[in-house]
């Protein structure tokens, strides 16, 4: 699945290059053909991404090959499409809530530490933090990026 996605990237780059030069050359026919082929590749790529994600889950659960898992996951999604869509949406909402929660709590903890700990509040300290709001914002953003990985 990942290999199929890897193959799509250079093909789309070539299509974009051809479309750009056919537009500059004034050849409308080639421009339209390339545009339609690019749309087909984009559709194929989104299909492969969807199947790959679900196939990897099937590979982990049932220890089958990727092609068998892709067939199984496609059949499952085709038969249980509404439930899969609902579950995917719910997981997306929990992912966003978790990422925001981790980011907020990290920012809050950072702010509390930077504004109350003597090592960061004393102007005589070599670790003095002059702008605790900036440090808090950086910590919260980094925590959010880190949380998105999971």
Automatic annotation (TrEMBL):
Record's signal peptide: 1-16
Organism superkingdom: Eukaryota
Membrane topology term: Multi-pass membrane protein
Ranges that cross the membrane: 92-114
Entry keyword set: Membrane, Signal, Transmembrane, Transmembrane helix
Keyword Signal set for record: yes
Localisation: Cell membrane; Membrane
Main location: membrane
Record's keyword annotation contains RNA-binding: no
Example of a GO cellular component annotation carried by this entry: plasma membrane
One of the record's GO molecular function terms: transmembrane transporter activity
Entry's family note: Belongs to the CTL (choline transporter-like) family.
Function, as annotated: Choline transporter.
Name assigned to this protein: Choline transporter-like protein
Organism the protein comes from: Alexandrium catenella
